[in-house]
């Protein structure tokens, strides 16, 4: 700073950086539902790892027992008819066509009983981890009701960025994810960018780790932290932050020239340390007041403000 309390505004390169809240989520959730009505008994807890074909819940109660009773009754009736047809076939009291129809009915009744037994036992289709259980033991459920949700397959990092700078994000960009519970950054890469589905707008960005460190305890479902993506390097005009004056929702600096001092409206950009980089409004080489900038800006306040009547 010169003795006159000013500095020369200079052009300087700066690499922008976008930051947003990020959360690790499953790519897709597997939802287990009740296939028949009854009273549920869950066999797993949230956070528990599960194997393929593992029993997750069992449907019991009067409705389930009534369903099994109907299926067993239908199977017994089909078995009796089929046995009678086989005895009568010898005496030519029944046709082979009728025997074939009753054999098909028996096979159908047997399959229906097996299907009822299977649907009353809810099993995991794949390996994964239980995320949430929607019902408690002893709860009456209906057919199609959600019982629990489980995570299976890959995880990705979900973040939402706002502002015009977010439009520069594209697949392939690399950045860093700093989990709140970790002491090390995880390198990440942008997989896809899509407009946010919510009313708050923004860009929905999906990322994955680029190295093995993402899976070493720092990359698990529910982990959250800060996502940082670097932007392209630009050359902007740098001035000390204390040279900026906010007046009526606009930013200004006081520029000193050979003809005196005058106000100059500017558009601030990113800040680094004690410097602020200006997006527009000032050119390199301008002499900017930094000492008592507020006082210099308002020294002739009477000429800019008219008191109300």
* Strand percentage: 35-45%
- Strand tally, please? 20
Shape: rod-shaped
Walk across the major sheet and give the strand order.
2-11-14-13-12-15
Poorly predicted regions are none
Query: With helices defined by DSSP (H or I, 4 residues minimum), what is the helix count?
Result: 3
Amino- and carboxy-terminal Cα gap: 43 Å
The string of secondary-structure elements, in order, is EEEEEEHHEEEEEEEEEEEEEEH
Strand count, sense and barrel status of the largest sheet are:
6 strands, antiparallel, barrel
Q: What integer value in Å does the Rg equal?
A: 36 Å
Mean pLDDT: 83
- In percent, how helical is the residue content? 10-25%
Structural class: alpha+beta
Q: How would you characterize this protein structure?
A:
There is one protein chain. The chain has 309 residues and is an alpha+beta fold. The chain has helices at residues 62-90, 96-119, 293-297; strands spanning 6-8, 10-26, 29-33, 38-42, 49-50, 55-60, 121-123, 128-133, 140-141, 146-151, 155-161, 174-179, 186-195, 203-209, 224-240, 245-247, 250-257, 260-272, 275-280, 287-289. The chain has a 6-stranded antiparallel β-barrel with strand order 2-11-14-13-12-15. A hairpin with a 2-residue loop joins strand 18 (260-272) and strand 19. It is rod-shaped, with a radius of gyration of 36 Å. The two termini are 43 Å apart. The model has no long low-confidence stretch (mean pLDDT 83).
Question: Which structural traits does this protein have?
Answer:
20 strands, 309 residues, six-stranded antiparallel β-barrel, alpha+beta, four-stranded antiparallel beta sheet
């Amino acid at each position: 700073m010169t003795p006159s309390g000013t500095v020369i505004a200079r052009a300087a390169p700066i690499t922008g950086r976008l930051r947003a809240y990020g959360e690790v989520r499953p790519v897709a959730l597997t939802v287990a539902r009740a296939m028949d009505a009854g009273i549920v008994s869950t066999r797993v807890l949230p956070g528990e790892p599960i194997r393929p074909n593992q029993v997750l819940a069992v449907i019991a109660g009067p409705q389930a027992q009534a369903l099994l009773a109907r299926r067993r009754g239908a199977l017994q009736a089909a078995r009796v008819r089929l046995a009678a047809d086989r005895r009568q076939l010898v005496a030519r009291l029944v046709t082979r066509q009728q025997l074939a129809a009753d054999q098909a009915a028996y096979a159908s009744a047997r399959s229906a009983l097996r299907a009822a037994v299977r649907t009353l036992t809810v099993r995991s289709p794949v390996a994964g981890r239980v995320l949430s259980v929607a019902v408690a033991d002893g709860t009456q459920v209906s057919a199609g009701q959600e019982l629990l949700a489980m995570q299976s397959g890959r995880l990705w990092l979900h973040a939402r960025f706002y502002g015009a700078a977010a439009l520069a994000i594209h697949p392939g960009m690399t950045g860093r994810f700093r989990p709140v519970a970790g002491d090390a950054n995880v390198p990440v890469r942008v997989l896809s960018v899509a407009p946010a589905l919510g009313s708050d707008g923004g860009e929905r960005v999906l990322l994955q780790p680029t190295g093995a460190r993402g899976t070493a305890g720092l990359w698990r479902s529910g982990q959250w932290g800060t996502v940082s993506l670097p932007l392209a390097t630009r050359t902007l005009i740098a001035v000390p932050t204390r040279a900026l004056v906010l007046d009526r929702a606009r930013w200004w600096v006081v520029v000193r020239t050979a003809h005196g001092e005058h106000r100059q409206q500017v558009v601030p950009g990113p800040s680094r340390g004690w410097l602020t980089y200006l997006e527009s409004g000032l050119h390199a080489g301008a002499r900017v007041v930094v000492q008592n900038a507020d006082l210099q800006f308002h020294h002739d306040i009477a000429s800019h403000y008219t008191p109300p009547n």
